[in-house]
Amino acid sequence: MKKSSFYIIVAAAVLGAASCKKDLAEINQNPNGATNPQPDYLLTSTEKKIADTYWGVDNNMNSSLLFVQHWAKIQYTDPDRYIFANNAFTPMWNALYAQAITNLNKIISISKQQQNPNYNGVALVLRSWSFLLLTDAFGDIPYSQAGKIDSVPNPAYDAQRTVYLGLLNDLKTAQASLSTSGAAIAGDVLYNNQIGPWKKFANSLRLRIALRIADREPQIAAQTLADIASEGSGYISSNTETAQLVYQDSPNQNPISNLFDTRDDYRISQTVTDKLRALNDPRLPIYAAPTADPTPLTYVGIPNGLTPGDASNLGFTKTSKPGTYFRAPHAPAVIISYAEVLFGRAEAAARGLTGENAADLYKQAITASFNQYGIQDATTIKNYTDQPAVTFNAGNYKQSIGDQKWIALFGQGLESYAEWRRLDYPQLKPAVAGVLNGALPVRFIYPGSEQTLNGNSYTNAVKNQGADLLTTKLWFDAN
């Protein structure tokens, strides 16, 4: 898709809301709203909406990136100490349910009217990713009744297991709908309307979910991977196929870039800088910016969860912001990288779910992560992977993969947070001045509005899942 058309399509993409009463709907018309929305406009705006939600302040910078200790806060440190209001996570809930999933359901409906299965397949993949973000963060969520506001204004919450299995079925349906010889689509700013990469994206999401449930449902996980192998489209197989949205100039710049234009309250976590320095990891100067004032270490992370006074005493000019790569206007919002897929395949092999070579795939994953950031030198990569602290440990594959995947997923707060909870590596220490009695958060709390707007469903979800607290473990977090 040409860059010049990106903003025009995003700005034009509006889905008009229908009123409950026919007479009111006839009077209360939005002159700027499309009464017959076009799927290409909807697709562009929805892809950007999900990416912005995934990569933005509330769900990434101000929560999951802190929980997983990629970033830390040097002022306004309450989120880094796990202090949240009951509406803190409302933006993610509202953006994905009220906007993204609603729009994707509309695209699915239009695809049937236009007899274009490729729109159906793409929308199902994006909808599955949206639901996956929600259930990974909150646990039990509205799924089977979600997005049916006309018929089900108060949707029930489905158990997390039900959601994951439903998403696997949805992605299998999407895979069958997508055809490289089928009707063309437009408006796709992830893969420029190419269907082949969408088939690999769908399979890569299926791999991600199969591993989410592997501790609970190993047989279903194995069957999912067997189905993918049988289907034959494969997974994301190079860095050029990484699923990502590449941002453009303002007002469509990366949300991290937008935030750092006006704020200066985030720094890289000391947990990351210590780990990268201990491994002599060449990604350190990419992940972290040099301190503004010269310091002996050049790259200085800060501990997570300091009090405001202790954090500010470290000095704004003597601590490191995240690297300029991540703060650039055009920096991509990475959804699934080639490195993640290779780590996933390595884990599947280590679990005995496939017959591939886990150690080889693990090395390939680290190499792919290095390549992703422009580190190509074979000697540099070999010296890194040959270190005893990096060499694949088949006897504790969760530690090897967990540590290296955590490094490779830097900046992808929601995904790295899910993987850290699932694999239990790296072994993070709670925030210095955290308020959870020495615990770390293991989920998001539901928006407070759910208690008033969907009270019965919310109450049933809490009964099924456990208290609506940051410390209540989710179904997939089995260990």
TrEMBL record:
UniProt keyword list: Lipoprotein
Keyword Lipoprotein in record: yes
Entries under InterPro entries matching the protein: SusD-like_2, TPR-like_helical_dom_sf
This protein's record includes keyword Lipoprotein: yes
Name of the protein: SusD/RagB family nutrient-binding outer membrane lipoprotein
